[in-house]
Design a protein that fits this description.
mainly alpha
Length: 325
């Protein structure tokens, strides 16, 4: 039954993937700039420029009809050949994004660990202590941080802890060539503190309110009154009954957090000069590197489509009211 459900969901998502790929292919064709010229060395002699240009034009398949270019591009995407970056001297796109993707995953692992460890207990306690000072204080906190743009939080942390107190680096990445062993990992930790704190504060704003509302809805159900009338302890009622039934909306946050490991925090990475996938996207757009832009967007699209599929499967597994049909 589960395998049949997964197959059906994949079939439903296939037109979505095709539509996204067509849209991205069209965008790649209407982007300004000459893709071939940007990939050629800048100091080519005039007498060999035209020959080199024509060879690169044919190598990229631009001499073929548009429909052939689309199917060739789509086939090569699924074969792992994502084209070549014009910003990085014609290096393969997969090689260009490998290090930034690793850095983004490292950053988001710590962000997700800290924000889930804080958001889950705080959101549950807010629902249990609804209307209390604890609940109202965290609601004010979430409203304040939700209203602040990420660059403002990041710049504020840089000003306080980097410039005024001098406790932490202002941004950038640790230099692997100058550091070894434990010193390198300590430098990594110091560079991660401010961007991790920024992203955790932003993530908490929506997560605690989401968890709080899900728990309030679960605690208002009749089965909770029945459980309490049986004389069960409040801890059992909250965690074994209410929380278990609130897992469906909460699982949306968890699934999103897991797949956010592969997505870049564009603004935060730019503020802290963090060499991640989000900052690479900004550089690719400003540098008009169309293959890099299109490939990154296709990568993000596949991640989001996969997240939707996984969320549907998780809903069916944790909620017996949902039938895997």
């Amino acid at each position: 039954m589960l395998i049949r459900f997964i197959i059906k969901r994949i079939i439903i998502l296939i037109p979505v993937v095709i539509g996204i790929s067509i849209l991205l292919f069209i965008v790649s064709k209407i982007m300004p700039g000459d893709q071939v010229a940007m990939m050629l060395p800048p100091n080519l002699r005039p007498e060999i420029y035209d020959v080199t240009y024509d060879a690169m034009f044919r190598r990229l398949g631009l001499d073929r009809p548009l429909y052939e270019q689309y199917f060739r591009w789509l086939r090569e995407i699924f074969q792992g050949n994502w084209g070549f970056s014009s910003m990085f001297q014609g290096r393969p796109v997969l090689d260009v994004i490998a290090e930034p993707l690793r850095n983004t995953i490292i950053l988001n692992i710590f962000v997700n660990i800290f924000y889930l460890l804080i958001a889950l207990p705080v959101g549950i306690r807010m629902a249990v202590k609804r209307g209390s000072i604890f609940d109202n204080s965290w609601q004010v906190f979430s409203l304040a941080t939700f209203s602040m743009p990420s660059f403002f939080i990041g710049l504020s942390l840089i000003f306080i802890f980097g410039i005024n107190l001098g406790w932490l680096p202002l941004g950038g990445m640790p230099n692997a060539a100058m550091l070894e062993g434990l010193d390198y990992y300590i430098a990594w930790a110091r560079h991660l503190v401010l961007p991790v704190t920024t992203l955790v504060l932003i993530s908490l704003a929506g997560a605690i309110r989401y968890i709080r509302n899900a728990m309030i809805d679960a605690l208002s159900q009749d089965y909770i009154k029945t459980a309490r009338s049986k004389g069960l302890s409040e801890k059992v009622v909250i965690y074994s009954h209410a929380f278990r039934n609130a897992l469906i909306p909460i699982s949306t946050i968890v699934v999103g957090a897991v797949f956010a490991l592969f997505g870049g925090a564009v603004v935060t990475e730019s503020v802290f000069s963090y060499h991640g996938i989000g900052r690479l996207m900004v550089s690719a757009v400003t540098g008009r590197d169309r293959m890099l832009v299109v490939s990154l967007n296709m990568f993000y699209s596949m991640i989001n489509v996969t997240a939707v599929l996984v969320a549907d499967i998780v809903y069916g597994l944790i909620d017996p009211r949902i039938k895997l049909k």
